[in-house]
């Protein structure tokens, strides 16, 4: 199913359709403030496993990430933050950053890798925030990337929505189409020490 929405003013009726799909265990492709991403509800283990298969990830070893709608929801799944780190997160979110934090006992079992860490995102994108808000819980997220056998001359991340639909429509249950996507991933920061340290440069300035 393909749902076409305006990136800045998406009709809630259409986004509710996508939310019902993932709430019942489905998978989706949706836009963020960086690149298009694969997503599902974090409580749907089979859907999480499917996302990992699509990306070639081992759930037990992968550094999985979740989309939250604000710092309050983030705090529900991350270990206690010190005041300095909280202020830094408040400064950069919402924005194009993924912050690796220590997880807490609220995370579903499949997220508890050996390091007991989780990537957290709070994107600055109306479609993404509305999806999380309607779902009422974070969305598992994994950046949509072309297969290794794609032409080396194209971007690592698909940006043309028609290419995305053609390539992935039979692999996921719903595609939320908000037009062209970005080609730069999020900037990844490690906050497990209590301070933010750069892991990967991306769209977010650091």
How would you characterize this protein structure?
With 206 residues, this protein is of the alpha/beta class. The protein contains 6 helices and 10 strands; from the N terminus they run E-H-E-E-H-E-H-H-E-E-H-E-H-E-E-E. It has a 10-stranded mixed beta sheet, sandwiched between helices. Helix 1 crosses helix 5 (126-135). Mean pLDDT is 91; it is low at 149-154.
What is this structure, in a nutshell?
The chain has six helices and ten strands. The chain is an alpha/beta fold.
Question: What topology emerges from the helices and strands here?
Answer:
Elements: E1 2-4, H1 12-23, E2 28-30, E3 37-41, H2 45-55, E4 65-67, H3 71-75, H4 83-92, E5 97-102, E6 117-121, H5 126-135, E7 139-143, H6 161-168, E8 174-177, E9 187-190, E10 197-200
Parallel strand pairs: 1-8, 2-8, 4-6, 5-9
Antiparallel strand pairs: 2-3, 3-7, 4-7, 5-6, 9-10
Helix pairs in contact: 1-5
Question: Between the first and last Cα atoms, what is the distance in angstroms?
Answer: 38 Å
Given the structure, what is the number of helices? 6
Element-level helix/strand string: EHEEHEHHEEHEHEEE
Class by alpha and beta content: alpha/beta
Total number of β-strand segments?
10
Helix % is 25-40%
Estimated radius of gyration = 16 Å
Q: Strand arrangement, largest sheet? A: 1-8-2-3-7-4-6-5-9-10
Short descriptors:
single chain; 206 residues; alpha/beta; ten-stranded mixed β-sheet; 10 strands
């Amino acid at each position: 199913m393909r749902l076409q929405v305006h990136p800045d003013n998406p009709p809630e009726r259409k986004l509710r359709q996508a939310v019902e799909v993932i709430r019942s265990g489905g998978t989706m492709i949706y836009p963020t403030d960086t690149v298009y991403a694969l997503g599902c509800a974090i409580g749907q283990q089979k859907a999480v496993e499917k996302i990992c298969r699509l990306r070639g990830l081992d759930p037990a070893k992968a550094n999985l990430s979740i989309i939250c709608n604000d710092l309050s929801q983030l705090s529900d799944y991350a270990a206690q933050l010190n005041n300095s780190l909280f202020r830094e997160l408040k400064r950069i979110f919402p924005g194009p950053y993924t912050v690796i934090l220590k997880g807490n006992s609220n995370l579903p079992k499949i997220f508890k890798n050996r390091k007991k860490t989780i990537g957290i995102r709070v994107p600055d994108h109306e479609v993404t925030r509305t999806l999380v808000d309607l779902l009422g819980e974070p969305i598992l997220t994994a950046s949509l990337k072309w297969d290794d056998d794609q032409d080396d001359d194209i971007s690592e991340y698909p940006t043309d929505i028609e290419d995305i639909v053609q390539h992935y429509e039979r692999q996921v249950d719903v595609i939320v189409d908000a037009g062209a996507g970005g080609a730069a991933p999020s900037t990844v920061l490690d906050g497990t020490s209590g301070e933010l340290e750069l892991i990967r440069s991306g769209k977010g300035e650091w």
